[in-house]
Amino acid sequence: MKSIIKIQFALLVMLLIAISGFCQIPSGYYDNAAGKTGDALRAALRDIIKTGQVKLSYANVYTSFKTTDVTISGGTTVWDMYSNCNYTVITGQCTGGTSAECKGYAREHCMPNSWWGGIDDANHPQYTDLNHLFPADQYVNQEKSNHPIGQVTNPTYTSINGSKVGPCSWTGGTTGVVFEPIDEYKGDFARAWLYLATRYMDSLSHWVTSYPSSESSEVINSTGNNYKQWFIDMLIKWSNEDPVSQKEIDRNNNIYYHTTQHNRNPFIDHPEYICEIWSSSYCTTTSVPEIKTISQNQLILYPNPAIGKVTCSITSSSETESNLEVYNYLGQNICKRKLELQNGSNSTELDLSNFQKGLYCVIVRNANGEISDSKQLVVE
Q1: Spatial separation of the C-alpha atoms in residues 66 and 259, rounded to whole Å
Q2: Contacts of 283 (CB under 8 A, 6+ apart)
Q3: Do 28 and 168 belong together in one domain?
Q4: DSSP string computed for 195-219
Q5: What is the per-residue pLDDT for 218?
Q6: Computed over its alpha carbons, how large is the radius of gyration of the chain?
Q7: Are residues 205 and 221 in contact, defined by beta-carbon separation less than 8 angstroms?
Q8: Is residue 235 assigned to a domain?
Q9: Domain for residue 143, yes or no?
Q10: Is-contact 216 131, C-beta < 8 A?
Q11: Which residues does residue 117 pair with via DSSP β-bridges, in sequence order?
Q12: Taking the model in full, what pTM does it have?
């Protein structure tokens, strides 16, 4: 089932491309995937995302988090999906065990590295692949251990933000222990695992037979280089219920443009690829909600093209609060401002003195997070 938010993100991407040439995905990046489905599509995506990928050192993962995993672009607070601790990037990192949450964060492999023998060399780029490596509270990381992700009804441990560890409750799933992230991040984890099944589609079965464990053998088929159907079903359900967020878009762009790893997660760029590759009862599209309009507000920019300053005028008969956001051509959010609308209209002036010359996209997002209008801005 698709959600309204997911559909709006897809519409936003198309709108941005149409009105301004604004592009977060490199031109032609997915051309070789066109017209393919099933494992042919998965193989095409594998070839696309491994071409030009550079393996990071493990130390460089921490350094990359300064760009990929801070809560605000250019900020210093780590975005930790495992807990609610406020860590400062780099200085908040730790090694070794701790006795409680909020003592330090670690580099957490979404798929436990023991599943491929814990090998870190040129033949195992997955060890430092940022597309499944996230900063995680060290204590929660220890509780997660080598368990896969899954759904938990009776947790034996619950983190500060509500993440759970306990017996898997997914019907037909593993009989062992799993880690369940909170709903806000289930799609992030699902798309990371689907990335792994694509980028390393030639290795999955080899890993599970060469380094067998009760955890990995419950998730990965011993032949066919794919996950078991229960796990695929769960990942697709999670991805549908938690659509691609701006956090994921920004992280995907930063990995490609601002780290030496220089590849992308295709299921963030094109979540529709998921059901074009894998079959599941959760791929049904019979209950698509009605799409809300994205033209509720009227955004006017003047002068445009602009030098030095631009006035943004927003008129609305229904919205009482909106956010104004500015994106550069790399898809990076470089400016965000809350707008309190009074008497159906409001204007604000943006200082462009630190903006480089070029094209930008200005969007208005209402209090519900929905895109209500967007315009191209040219800075000269």
Answers
A1: 10
A2: 236, 274, 275
A3: yes
A4: HHHHHTTTTHHHHHHHS--TTGGGT
A5: 97
A6: 22
A7: yes
A8: yes
A9: yes
A10: no
A11: none
A12: 0.72
Residues in a beta bridge with 322: 339, 366
Give residue 353's pLDDT. 84
Q: Where are the alpha helices (DSSP H) in the chain?
A: 4-20, 38-50, 58-68, 138-144, 186-199, 204-210, 229-241, 246-258, 266-269, 273-277
Return the pLDDT at 22. 34
Which of the residues in the chain have pLDDT under 70? 1-23, 95-97, 285-297, 316-321, 329-332, 339-345, 368
Assigned token pair, 174:
């593993």
The per-residue pLDDT for 245 is: 86
CA distances from 81 to 66, 97, 138, 287 (A): 15, 19, 12, 30
CA distance 262 to 285: 33
How many whole angstroms separate alpha carbon 316 and alpha carbon 320? 8
Distance from chain centroid for Cα 218: 25
Domain that includes residue 82, residue range = 4-283
Q: Are residues 108 and 214 in the same domain?
A: yes
Is residue 183 domain-resident? yes
Q: Which residues contact 257 (CB under 8 A, 6 or more apart)?
A: 330
Instruction: Provide the CA 65 distance to its chain's centre, in angstroms.
Output: 14
Same domain, 133 and 200: yes
Nearest residue to 198 (alpha-carbon basis) of 276, 284, 118, 113: 276
* Residue 10: exposure state from Cβ atoms within 10 A (0-12, 13-18, ≥19): middle
